[in-house]
UniProtKB/TrEMBL annotation:
<comment type="similarity">
    <text>Belongs to the IS21/IS1162 putative ATP-binding protein family.</text>
</comment>
<dbReference type="InterPro" id="IPR047661">
    <property type="entry name" value="IstB"/>
</dbReference>
<dbReference type="InterPro" id="IPR001270">
    <property type="entry name" value="ClpA/B"/>
</dbReference>
<dbReference type="InterPro" id="IPR028350">
    <property type="entry name" value="DNAC/IstB-like"/>
</dbReference>
<feature type="domain" description="AAA+ ATPase">
    <location>
        <begin position="107"/>
        <end position="224"/>
    </location>
</feature>
<keyword id="KW-0547">Nucleotide-binding</keyword>
<dbReference type="InterPro" id="IPR027417">
    <property type="entry name" value="P-loop_NTPase"/>
</dbReference>
<dbReference type="InterPro" id="IPR002611">
    <property type="entry name" value="IstB_ATP-bd"/>
</dbReference>
<dbReference type="GO" id="GO:0006260">
    <property type="term" value="P:DNA replication"/>
</dbReference>
<dbReference type="InterPro" id="IPR003593">
    <property type="entry name" value="AAA+_ATPase"/>
</dbReference>
<dbReference type="Pfam" id="PF01695">
    <property type="entry name" value="IstB_IS21"/>
</dbReference>
<keyword id="KW-0067">ATP-binding</keyword>
<dbReference type="GO" id="GO:0005524">
    <property type="term" value="F:ATP binding"/>
</dbReference>
<protein>
    <submittedName>
        <fullName>ATP-binding protein</fullName>
    </submittedName>
</protein>
Amino acid sequence: MARTKKATEAPIDRLEAMLARLQLSGIRDQLDNLLDEAARASLSARETLILLCEREIARKDHRRIEMALKLAHFPAVKELAGFDFEAQPSIDPKQIRDLAASRWIANGENVLLLGPSGVGKTHLSIALGREAILAGYTVQFTTATTLVAGLAKAHGERRLDEKLLALAKPKLLIVDELGYLPLEPDAAHLFFQLVSRRYENGAMLITSNRSVAEWGTVFAEPMTS
């Protein structure tokens, strides 16, 4: 009896081992339920394989998105569906939906969201960042003051290149609230280096309460040494 049981279980154990080796944990963990589902639907062998692959892909996508959202460091959960376009008639919904398609990110282009406080720039930047993650892009969110302070600290510790390299990796870098608070004395120099490092390699989305013409007052004079 013991030999019969071992012979019966061996193929299952072997299948689970192969699924684990192939890192198909979604199929492995739900194998019995998925096979029962396929049997109830009278699926063919090919259709059953399609079902297994679909569930594995869905699980991997879900885990990838969860991890990417954590790494993005969004300060809140915001989605385009929750944005009140009627309350902000100056914002073109069609243009925002076009940005949500993330083609500009693929092309390494930059987007500026400009306007006074309270119009939803941060909401839109987070929501667009989330759409970028759903499309498969890596995203990092930061405020302008935190960004420049980090660059200044890295510069003082002689590891600016290391910091710039890390900030160049995300396909989309979101810099929020440029112009709201005073920046580090060397902000212009440091910010320019970041933009140069990311030029044509990664996209940036910047929100600001200042027009581009006023940005000269936002940044201090560049370093002389």
